[in-house]
Amino acid sequence: MSDHLTNWTRQSAKLTRAAKPKKGPTPEGAVMTAVLDALKAWRIGHVIRVNTGALEDKTGRIVRFGEPGHSDLVVELPDGRNAYLELKEPTWRPMSEPAPGSAPSTWRKWRHQQEQDAFLARQTARGCPAAYIRSVAELQQFLALHGLLRRSA
Q1: CA–CA gap between residue 139 and residue 75 (Å, rounded)
Q2: Is the pTM of this model over 0.70?
């Protein structure tokens, strides 16, 4: 078999293995959709969706993108500031530090939450509104608290 065909076969097999079946929307995805719709309807400002994470490239190297802990949405406000919104599923609650011996996945989730907490705290210290948002009702409260609603929503 030629090298070219062998490489193509390996890459094809890798893509087949990596493919995951499509699932329905996640609870956080439903919050994302509702929040984006509300921000658009209320004309708060320009909204930027920020993705962070990691992917494996075709050579097998892990490529990371985005700043760890960065919020899901950045809203460019009319006054020149940005608002930072970290969206969570409706049942989300902040984690406390896991007990020693907890599963590695529990520690990863906790460390990720710590990164998100630190990011939101940095933005707040700069004078930018920042918060965890679990619903459109929480979004409305957040915007009202910061005087960002142009009309009663």
Answers
A1: 12
A2: yes
Total residue count of the chain as it appears in this document = 153
Q: Write the DSSP assignment of 44-108 as a string of letters.
A: -SEEEE---EEEE-TTS-EEEES-TT--SEEEE-TTS-EEEEEE--TT--PPPPPPTT--HHHHH
CB atoms within 10 A of CB 130: 21
The number of beta carbons lying within 10 Å of the beta carbon of residue 60 is 7
User: What residues pair up with 83 in beta bridges, in sequence order?
Assistant: 75
- Residues 70 and 49: beta-carbon distance below 8 Å: no
Q: Which tens digits make up the pLDDT trace of 30-68?
A: 999 999 999 999 999 999 999 888 899 999 999 998 888
